[in-house]
Amino acid sequence: MSIFHSLTVSAVDQLTPNSVAITFIVPENIKDAYTYSPGQYITIKHMVAGQELRRAYSISSAPSSNKLTVGIKKVDDGTFSVYANTELKVGDVLEVMIPEGRFIFKPSGTPKNIAAFAAGSGITPIMSIAKTVLEDNDASTFVLVYGNKSPEETMFYSEIQELSKKYTNRFFVKYVFSRAQEENALFGRIETSSVNYILKNQFKETSFDAFYLCGPEEMIELVSDTLKSSGISEDKIHFELFTTPEESEDLLAEELEGKTQVEVVLDDESFHFTMDKKKLVLDAVLKENIDAPYSCQGGVCSSCIARVVEGKAEMVQNQILTDGEIAEGLILTCQAHPTTSKLKLDYDDV
């Protein structure tokens, strides 16, 4: 079930000309429900012209702050992002889902060397992760490579500068600007040379425990491939997409014929219905008014994951699940077609 609560906006802070940080008041009686891990996100539900919109935004605040803050960048032709940047104000109430997400850092109390590569609004979860890493152990270090057009367009720029001052010998940031040449910053975009500069030059003596990548798919693939070619094991590389991949032609749907008898287990209840194999599972589930969890519907977030208990389903695309998780039966229901005459899904067992 998608669990939403009505939360009041306590602050709207302008980060750049096109982005804001939104902070919510979480009442005492539901604080436990909004306990989050650094790197997780919330989903905001909003009605526009009678249509329900759901948008996922990463949490930028650290769990230790007792705040719930997200960064929202205005997107061209966006709906909620434009509203948040131009109309949302302190005192407004929004429907907010409890935190979720798998792109997380787990504090252990032991020293860690962490590096992160972020572009644009991809910095949002990285802010929460960076603060937590630095708070977790006085010997931990954090290296951030952050790409933007210019300092003026850099989300959380002031906060990042404050972290640099507070953790002089443990927090290191290398800005990459594509439209501004600044002292001590790289010019252009995050690319192979940017990654190699960190690994083989500035921090060549540092053994990193993990890498966190967040931003557009192209950047994540480039950084990930460069890290792997430098001998970094895949299990040390964590990533989260911040843009929905361009829609590709659903060739699988064209190949499928017939109907599937579907059973959905959600909140210990079972639901039964019949669907066309050409339809995506999540679309069919929502059409039956089953309150399944979802957010982006584009295969970017992990909200709609379910486990296949019986039958088979095949995904059109997958940016989230590992091969091991797929082998265990997990699927992104927003990307999956049933391929057998019967399909049983369990949203609870994930």
From TrEMBL:
Keywords: 2Fe-2S, FAD, Flavoprotein, Iron, Iron-sulfur, Metal-binding, Oxidoreductase. Residues 260-350 form the 2Fe-2S ferredoxin-type domain. PROSITE patterns: 2FE2S_FER_1, 2FE2S_FER_2, FAD_FR. InterPro entries: 2Fe-2S_ferredoxin-like_sf (IPR036010), 2Fe-2S_ferredoxin-type (IPR001041), 2Fe2S_fd_BS (IPR006058), Beta-grasp_dom_sf (IPR012675), Cbr1-like_FAD-bd_dom (IPR008333), FAD-bd_FR_type (IPR017927), Flavoprot_Pyr_Nucl_cyt_Rdtase (IPR001709), FNR_nucleotide-bd (IPR039261). One of its GO terms (molecular function) is oxidoreductase activity. The keyword Amino-acid biosynthesis does not apply. The keyword Transit peptide does not apply. Residues 2-106 form the FAD-binding FR-type domain. Its cofactor is FAD. It holds the Pfam family NAD_binding_1. This is Ring-1,2-phenylacetyl-CoA epoxidase subunit PaaE. It comes from Saonia flava.
